[in-house]
Amino acid sequence: MSEKILMKGAEAIGEAAIKAGCRLFFGYPITPQNEAPAYMSKRMPEVNGTFLQAESEVSAINMLYGAAGAGHRVMTSSSSPGISLMMEGLSYIAGAQLPVVVVNVMRGGPGLGGIGPAQADYFQSTKGGGHGDFRIITLAPADLQEQVDIMYDAFDLADKYRNPVMVLTDGLLGQIMEAVEFKTELDPSSFKPPAWAVTGRKNRPKNLINSFDLDLDGLERHNHEIQAKYKTIQEKEVKFESFHAEDSEIVVVAYGTMGRICKTAIRKMREKENASVGLLRPITLWPFPEKKMLELAQKPSVKAFCTFELSAGQMVEDVRLYSKELKPVHFHGRTGGNVPSPEEVIEKIKSVQKEAR
Asked: Which one, of 57, 121, 64, lies nearest residue 96 by Cα?
């Protein structure tokens, strides 16, 4: 690790991508992540990389398709409406089994909405978002250091499974400043082109990268192949934080910014009142920590769950699904870019405690 550097979240995303070996960035500006492409426009030439501002998000995601097909580590960043425009391209990329990293600095919606932080893109990222049976590995950091570390993981997972990976952050984590440190920088020249890449080489069999197949049985075989891959991801790549969730009556479930706020609230309640409250914070939103969810639901000591989100309620559906509703599942959400204080979270948890008794 290097020394700590004070950085804005969106800029730290860009630097982490460079340190992880990314040398190609294609994107289009949209608030509140504009600092990421602006940073990359300056840094990429300094590391012999390429920054290109596309004419739209549709163009940007298809540029990623082409660059990933040549075997390069590539990424883009955008925010909610821009990510919506990328969804057709992401389906193509998933169908072609190409590794790309997409950062979504979520903002309030629906529609054009506003630029305040939100978590209303959970469905979009974890349930496919575009057409066809495909999945996006989705990672959700709760602070800037974790956001930096996750960027390395995102590129590694994309390469490992030849699949798009989304880092799902928000306007708060994109705009705040915190001290971060970076792992050792990876040298892109040390990466060997994968055997499947289209590189123009003549000394190996011709490669074809495509997501189009008019043979019904052939397309079905392809679907079986990628579904088997998704099953492997679900078995091997689940990540979460359990903060006193094992020994608590009330288990809070939250991710990203809300996970951070809830952890602060829970720490206060445990220190001041010795409250029996814990936190399950999914770090991979897909694959969701479904086994852990059911394990907690089956514990006699757990009386109820309470899910906090910066949305009208999206992840709460997975909490209900994977807990099999063996225990009551409560929900508290804020929308429009509003972010609850730890005190607001504490008030909701106390109301759940009363009901559980």
From this structure: 64
The reply to whether CATH 3.40.50.150 applies to domain 240-356 is: no
| pLDDT at res. 156 | 97
Three-state secondary structure string covering the chain: CCCCEEEEHHHHHHHHHHHCCCCEEEECCCCCCCHHHHHHHHHHHHCCCEEEECCCHHHHHHHHHHHHHCCCCEEEEECHHHHHHHHHHHHHHHHHCCCCEEEEEEECCCCCCCCCECCCCHHHHHCCCCCCCCCCEEECCCCHHHHHHHHHHHHHHHHHHCCCEEEEEEHHHHHCEEEECCCCCCCHHHCCCCCCCCCCCCCCCCCCCCCCCCCHHHHHHHHHHHHHHHHHHHHHCCCEEEECHHHCCEEEECCHHHHHHHHHHHHHHHHHHCCCEEEEEECEEECCCHHHHHHHHCCCCCCEEEEEECCCCCHHHHHHHHCCCCCCEEEEECCCCCCCCHHHHHHHHHHHHHHHC
Domain ranges of the chain: 5-200+224-236, 240-356
Could you report the per-residue pLDDT of 58-82, keeping only the tens digit for each? 999 999 999 999 999 999 999 999 9
Q: Which residue has the tokens 């948890």?
A: 349
Distance of CA 233 to the CA centre of its chain: 15
At residue 1, does pLDDT exceed 70?
Answer: no
Higher pLDDT, 355 or 193: 355
Question: Which whole number is the average pLDDT over 258-281?
Answer: 98
5-200+224-236: what CATH class? alpha beta
What pLDDT is stored for residue 189 in this prediction? 86
How much is the pTM? Answer: 0.96
Give the residue-averaged pLDDT of 226-236. Answer: 98
Two structure tokens written together for 292 = 């852990």
CA torsion sign for 33, 36, 37, 38 is positive
